[in-house]
Amino acid sequence: MTYDLWYWDGIPGRGEFVRLALEAGGIAYRECARQPGATERALVDDMQSPRKHPPFARPYLVAGRLTLAQTANILLYLGDKHGLAPATVEGRYWTNQLQLTIADMVAEAHDTHHPIAASEYYEDQRDEAIRRAASFRNERIPKFLGYFERVLQARGDWLAGGRRWSYADLSLFHLVDGLLYAFPKRMATVSRRFPRVMALHARVAGLPALQPYFSSGRRLPFGDGIFRYYPELDGD
Asked: What burial class does residue 226 get, using C-beta atoms within 10 Å of its C-beta: 0-12 exposed, 13-18 middle, 19+ buried?
């Protein structure tokens, strides 16, 4: 089966967490927004088309008659279906718990530049963003990365334990990548406190299965998505 992945083109966004799992797992998929003739209107029309279980937002994955939305839910499915998570019930739910924790931090990272409303321009909430980003840098980055550091200390090289990566490791890699882009000064200071997290980031970056994707030009750069760089929001 070839999956259809629906997400906006032009930004990594939450779709990138799904892409990394598909790419690392060698799973066939179509990026629907990048197909010939694809338009933004086509994305809107597909999401609003009648379905038994309609998605609220992108990303969503179409697997035959099944439509799966919400990043963590999609990854739970792919983990079960393609061995991207432990096979035990305990291991599957543990990996999903890790993914949901990553999703919490992703949401907080987004809110550093849009603390009032996603529908308003950054410039209209800049003062509030500066205050929110300071709290995120000083309190939330250490809290979240400290948690993952403790998990790795207890589990070993990979978040779910064992000798092989899970989709949660891929997602933590992308989260750290986004933080390095959006908060380079802060991460330069704080990353030394989390050597296991940074070592995992390096291990995922070097996975042979991901090298074709990284070198293909299909991996979208950060810019106007979840992780954005504003110098005034960064700091040591």
From this structure: buried
